[in-house]
């Protein structure tokens, strides 16, 4: 994810920019002070809150679609058939296409303008969503999901850059709204999917989880076309490094495919070989980027971003934090459904407290971040750790928990997690120059997706090493306790890594 500098010179095609006030109750975040600003306050776009709505809708489309398929998978398999592996790839295909395409997507925004690239990505995403909803075979559905992920990779890196273009040094006001919604949407996808499939709107069944994208996406497209700033490309004259894009795609595929498939298949030899092969391929990619930069040619990645302490420390934090959160989320879902026998909707409702907590924590962070700076990350991680210890004790109890027994601990875990979302990416990207933003945002998103796949692979493997399907609630509780203990360890590591981030977001001049 990324944010743009208020130093950016943006050309608007319609109205003369003027400064407007935040809506009542909007808090000023520490992210508003993360980037260096010119001596004079930059002008802000007059319809920036309408623009933010379009950006929010676009972001929600990606966050929801990244997590909705697992709940609907049994219904999809009943109607379209397919093996367990094929069904798994309905989620993995989206994630893989997104992760592989993010580097190129971020660079396209720098080359052609963020609004233009966002609109193209959104149109493609909606067409792919329609294809998913209309798919008559499992193969067509899988192909449409891959296309959907590829277009998500085009539109996602543009969103945070457009927020900076719209709000300048007032970005904190935008994040006061944006952060809580991200916290809620990140884990609300399965709940929404369970409700949609259960409702069977107009007889669409599982297809509604894709078709629901159309009204939301069309509204974002129409509104965005009218109100988002048509800024000039940030670095005109760039040429896309197609060779670098291909090498990066191969390297990321070699890394992520075995992480996604290996656990499910018992880590066959080919998966280990692919993981090992990814190392020299990605190393060669870095070498080509260094060579291009030294020769004055355009690289896919702006290597200068790695000279920024906030960015390099942020990458390490993102890998540990998102790996832990995603892997733990999978383990809880497996425990509820396979261990306790909950149906998809019941399991989603049992985890609803997590989503509520994420929303509350994000809102609380909006007020705390300006005062605490980096400390709000440590506070959130401390709350997460305490909640995980409570869950660890519950999983060690003799009796299996009821539907709502885990809710208090999951609520506070969500609160801690949500507190981290608001300031994190502003702190990480605060020192970036405008020409670095597209490349850096795509790279950061790629690390986030890779961390999620790694977390699923590692913690999922630990869970199934202690639990065999049909093993009963007691065995599942033991497996869940092991995963929770490891998640405690990862959260503590994230706590320590966070000391490498700046104490405060970068102050304005």
TrEMBL record:
Gene3D superfamilies: MFS general substrate transporter like domains, Multidrug resistance protein D. The chain crosses the membrane at residues 49-75, 87-105, 117-136, 142-163, 175-197, 209-228, 240-259, 265-286, 315-336, 348-369, 376-398, 410-430, 451-473, 479-501. Keywords: Membrane, Transmembrane, Transmembrane helix. Residues 8-23 have a biased composition (Low complexity). It holds the Pfam family MFS_1. GO terms for molecular function: transmembrane transporter activity. Its main location: membrane. One of its GO terms (cellular component) is plasma membrane. Residues 51-506 form the Major facilitator superfamily (MFS) profile domain. Residues 1-23 are annotated as: Disordered. It is found in: Cell membrane. It is a multi-pass membrane protein. This is MFS transporter. It comes from Glycomyces luteolus. The lineage of its organism: Bacteria, Bacillati, Actinomycetota, Actinomycetes, Glycomycetales.
């Amino acid at each position: 994810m990324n944010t743009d500098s208020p130093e950016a010179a943006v050309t608007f095609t319609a109205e003369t920019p003027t400064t407007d006030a935040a809506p009542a109750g909007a808090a000023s975040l520490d992210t508003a002070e993360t980037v260096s600003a010119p001596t004079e306050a930059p002008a802000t776009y007059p319809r920036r809150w309408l623009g933010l709505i379009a950006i929010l809708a676009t972001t929600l489309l990606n966050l929801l679609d990244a997590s909705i398929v697992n709940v609907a998978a049994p219904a999809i398999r009943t109607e379209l058939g397919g093996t367990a592996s094929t069904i798994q790839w309905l989620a993995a295909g989206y994630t893989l296409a997104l992760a592989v395409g993010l580097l190129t997507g971020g660079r396209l925004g720098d080359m052609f303008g963020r609004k233009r690239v966002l609109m193209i990505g959104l149109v493609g995403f909606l067409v792919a969503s329609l294809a998913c909803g209309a798919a008559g075979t499992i193969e067509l559905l899988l192909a449409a999901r891959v296309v959907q992920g590829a277009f998500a990779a085009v539109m996602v890196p543009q969103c945070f850059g457009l927020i900076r273009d719209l709000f300048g040094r007032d970005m904190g006001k935008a994040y006061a709204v944006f952060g809580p919604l991200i916290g809620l949407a990140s884990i609300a996808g399965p709940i929404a999917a369970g409700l949609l499939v259960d409702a069977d709107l107009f007889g669409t069944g599982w297809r509604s989880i894709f078709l629901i994208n159309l009204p939301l996406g069309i509204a974002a497209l129409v509104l965005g076309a009218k109100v988002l700033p048509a800024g000039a490309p940030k670095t005109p004259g760039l040429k896309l490094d197609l060779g670098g894009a291909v090498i990066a795609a191969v390297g990321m595929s070699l890394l992520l495919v075995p992480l996604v498939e290996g656990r499910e298949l018992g880590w066959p030899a080919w998966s280990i070989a692919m993981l090992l092969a990814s190392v020299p391929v990605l190393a060669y990619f870095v070498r080509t980027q260094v060579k291009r930069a030294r020769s004055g040619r355009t690289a896919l990645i702006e290597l200068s971003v790695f000279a920024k302490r906030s960015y390099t420390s942020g990458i390490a934090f993102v890998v540990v934090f998102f790996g832990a959160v995603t892997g733990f989320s999978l383990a809880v879902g497996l425990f509820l459904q396979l261990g306790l026998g909950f149906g998809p909707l019941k399991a989603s409702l049992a985890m609803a407290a997590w989503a509520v907590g994420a929303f509350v924590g994000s809102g609380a962070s909006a007020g705390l971040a300006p005062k605490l700076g980096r400390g709000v990350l440590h506070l959130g991680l401390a709350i997460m750790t305490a909640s995980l210890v409570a869950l660890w004790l519950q999983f060690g109890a003799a009796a299996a928990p009821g539907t709502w027994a885990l809710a208090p601990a999951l609520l506070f875990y969500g609160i801690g997690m949500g507190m981290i979302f608001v300031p994190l990416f502003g702190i990480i990207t605060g020192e970036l120059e405008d020409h670095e933003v597209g490349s850096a945002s795509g790279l950061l998103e790629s690390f986030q997706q890779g961390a999620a796949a790694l977390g699923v692979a590692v913690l999922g493997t630990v869970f199934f090493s202690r639990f065999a399907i049909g093993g009963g609630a007691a065995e599942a509780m033991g497996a869940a306790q092991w995963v929770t203990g490891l998640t405690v360890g990862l959260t503590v590591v994230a706590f320590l890594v966070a000391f490498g981030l700046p104490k405060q977001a970068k102050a304005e001049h």
